[in-house]
Fold each of these.
Amino acid sequence: MSPRSPLEQLRRRLLATGPGPRLLGPRAALAHQLTLSACLLVGVLLVSDRTLGNPALYWGGQVAVHLFTLVLLVTVVVGRAGRVARPRSADLLILLPVADLLVLAVSRWSLANVMGFQGFLMAVPCVWLAAQLRYRGAMLGIGISLLSVPLGLVITPALDPVAVLSRGLASSLLVAAMGLVVASAMVRLDEHTRRLEAVSASLGVVSLVLDEDGRVLESSGRLRGASRGLDVHDLLADPVFGESGRSPLPPERHPLARAARGSELDGEAVWSSGATGRRVALSVSSTRLDPDRMLVVVHDVTASLGAVLQEEQFLANISHELKTPLTSITGYVELIEDEVAEGAGGDPETIRRHLAVVSRNVERLQRLILGLLETARTVSGDRIGSDGGPRRVIALDELLRRQVEALEPRQRARRLRVDLAGVAASVELVNADPERLGQAVDNVLTNAVKYAHEGGTVTVSLGTEGPDAVLGVADEGIGIGAEDLERLFTPYFRARTATSAGVAGYGLGLMITRRIVRAHGGEMAISSEVGVGTRVEMRIPLVRT
């Protein structure tokens, strides 16, 4: 890296104002410069040839300042008409108030016989500098103003030095007061802005300012959550999808297009995947700043909106699951009533068959309802059972073999082989809950049997590592995509590979299982590859304290 020149280092230090609003945009700069020119034009009406000690100096200063104003006016008009972007315009504009100060520092002494009001006009560019550079700008303006005082002794040697000094110091005092007040106000505003930015960053909020044509003038903040690291402009590029995430929005319904037209949005939710393909939900709100600009606030709502959609899907699935057995029960009860009503009590064998169907559907309903109750109980508690009571020991290896044996009918139906060669004997847990732990093991084994390819192998291992028992279950099945792994423990969530394969489920088993494992002081991990299989590992302390 080549060393910077002294001039470049000075420029960087001077302009390093830190985070905070900059008032030296082209239009704001033009407002300052026009104010200064207007004041000078008014001053022309107050002077006469008798008061001009040095006409050439006076009119030269007037021409120089008005020329600066004209150049800036043309630059702003042309730049706005052509939408020309100038990244370093702020660096160039900072030279303009300095030039104004230097011109006024000299031309103020052209009014030899009256109080030099041009000296007081030095407060205008000094305020400009203070607004841009805070205390550094104020001190720069004050310094130029003070340096102009001894210059007056040189330019006007015929005047009383006391009068020159008093006139110069009076104007410098005004320049200092206004510059320091503005700098102090801007520093406080900077602090307020930093606090707002810190809050926005913690909330993951991005704010955009749009002009009347829908162009982004300003952008600040970063997204968090599922869209962390993604560019908000890329995410809000067409196409975006509605709140349901299914239908793309037409261009005229795009939230940015509506905001540009002046619509005030209140949490408009859209789905987008951007260039990365990662599907995220964004909430877009807008409000009007002024007739030409709209403020748009965007934040990530993937987790909350996804949970709502999953809950709606879950309720739809549950409604269907409840309706199916209830419809079957109702139908077979009617058949039994018809059979009995035919006289002679009906055919016992037919009634038994009908009752068997009713019984199966009742059991199905019981399992479903118990699963829902288990979810509620597991979510509401972080620990299982009581810390008190007598010490009890359970054999995890025996519990595991019993659960495998209970799954044998389903295993045979799918022609699966369960390999228990890696199961060590005499793995004992102290103070574990055998019923809840059995439920967790059953959930993992059931998933392995359900998602394994027919005719494949399910490998079960059990051993100890340090203070933990380690139980592993691996299948050679459909697997899980990397994008779904981190959401497997979300209630009601099901991996895309499972839904596309048409495998039934509610998306509750893994969440319940991890809750049970964590309630025992353990942890659970899942690794998977689509089309290859999945491995689930449960680590449970040998002694629950």
Note: The CA atoms of residues 41 and 528 lie 78 Å apart.
Amino acid sequence: MALALGVDTGGTYTDAVLIRDESDVIASAKALTTRADLAIGVGQAIQAVLDQALVSPDQISMASLSTTLATNALVEGQGGRVALIYIGFKDSDLEKHGLQDALKGDPALVLSGGHSHAGGESAPLNRAALEAFLDSHKGISGYAVAAQFATRNPAHELEAARVIAERTGAPVTCSHHLSAKLNGPKRAVTAVLNARLIGMIDGLIGRAQVRLQELGITAPMMVVRGDGALMSADQARERPIETILSGPAASIVGASWLTGAENALVSDIGGTTTDVALIRDGKPAIDPAGARVGGFRTMVEAVAMRTHGLGGDSQVHVVTEGLRGGVFLGPRRVLPVSLIASEAPKAVHAVLDAQLRATTVGEHDTRFARRIPGIHADGLGAREEALLERLGDQVLPLSDLLRTRMENGALTRLVDRGIVQVSGVTPSDASHVLGRLDSWDAEAARKALELMARKRIGTGDMLASAPEVLAHMIVDQLTEQTALTLLETAFAEEAQEFGVPSSDLARHVLTQKGLARHRGLLALDTSINVDVVGLGASAPSYYPAVGDRLHCRMILPEHAGVANAIGAVVGRLTLRRSGTVTSPSEGRYRVHLEDGPQDFNDSDAALALLESVLRQEAESAVRQAGAEDIRVVVDRDIRTARIEAQEVFVEAMVTVEASGRPRVASG
């Protein structure tokens, strides 16, 4: 009997499952995700599932991890301090192509150098300027290097990476290692995000491996990529950007395995995000333009997933303008009041009681902050340092922590760095008030919603007459925003384009009237025309109403709450390697390789060499990752042009995919 362990670390919960012989879920368990040390929550979930199944750790033959950590970090703007080395481009390109947004104030150096489309050197690499930059910038957790046409000749990226590694010892991400496609600015954004994530993902994987060993599990550890395939832990540490959408991708694989669905929308609600994707012909659709997360379009191959900052722990905002008032959710995740109260009950209840006794509702009522221990706080400004000193290791209400409005920005920066967590009212609190959840402190949730209900709207009336009324408003808003997310995905994935952005179509008056089954001179009906698979621990609480709203069949499979962990187990180890052959002049065919271009007089010979090199790299990498029964698929995308009645070779992209089942350890 082969037992495989799947683990998923989400924003709120860490899930674990045990699957026997790739066919039967024999146990599942949950534990709270422990942000300060994720391995604690991982260990608790694994121990719980082992105890439930009554199996010993040495019976585990494979362990696999999926995580929303990278996705959540990019959505919430978290991660380490990085620097970009931008070679052969202009200073204006940083702003023009969104790199300044990706850098979030972190430093960048624009250097002379780079190569031409044909792979020839455009200008020498300015090593002196690079060395001076490295000597003058400290506290960098990772470097991103992106050079012009590095996919045609990576020499300058490799040389810059060598210099950085020698002088700083910090990890370096080269853009050509992440994608073989052109588009230097987009590769640079991807490299910056990868560099930002390296420390975070490395810490997670390293601590998870240590915890597995402490529990007596010696099986090899795999990690889910954004396309749903598996990679080795070492590969994930080098390319953490490939784990963005890892958790959502695993959920799609898990949904397909659980339901056998051939064509369906999958909606996975977590604590931080709702992720929606399409299963078509039994497989998750892959986004040809690259994964888009947190407002950034990357060059990472991943499932075609729409990720929205909408989850059970999304912050509830009050709409005070206008005569009707209301609430909206997200995109930032906060700690539910019910959760922080369960961890510091005396402090939280004392503050909530005092706020309830006040005659007016304060700006920061129901909001608390705490520092996450063990998170490095290098490179902070004076205001951030002062806030951290004031906060110490206690749970403080924001009304006590923040003394000036200028400190709001400092607190936001601490939250973005993952150093501080802030609590607030969430849908999870609303569910506690309504009795749908009983995981944490329901009384604290009720007090928090009573405070929020007292806020005044445009008419001067209170937002809601009672905590239960507000709780229903919050849950109804979650239903509405989830329905809009599903509609956007459906419109975006329609084979026939409507010529209008999918977000506009989802909100269009005709769509909304159709959902309401308008009957007048016109009869309007709108519905989702495929099944929807609802996943996530809170899906049974929220998604039946979503199905009613969209007039579709809502499938809530058994084990829906741990679908991510299931998907982590049932995937295949897959590696892809791509390369290019160009034709710089008539009758000459140039193969662009890691160690420089090679020219041939025959296109078949050039393609054969590239395919051989890529096949060797892909097979070696997937075997090293722990795969067996390896299968190789080669795709040649050859572009030609018709000139004077002849087909002329222009360019070819060769992609080699090697995949296999993870090699199981002997029990």
Note: The chain is about 40% helix and 25% strand.
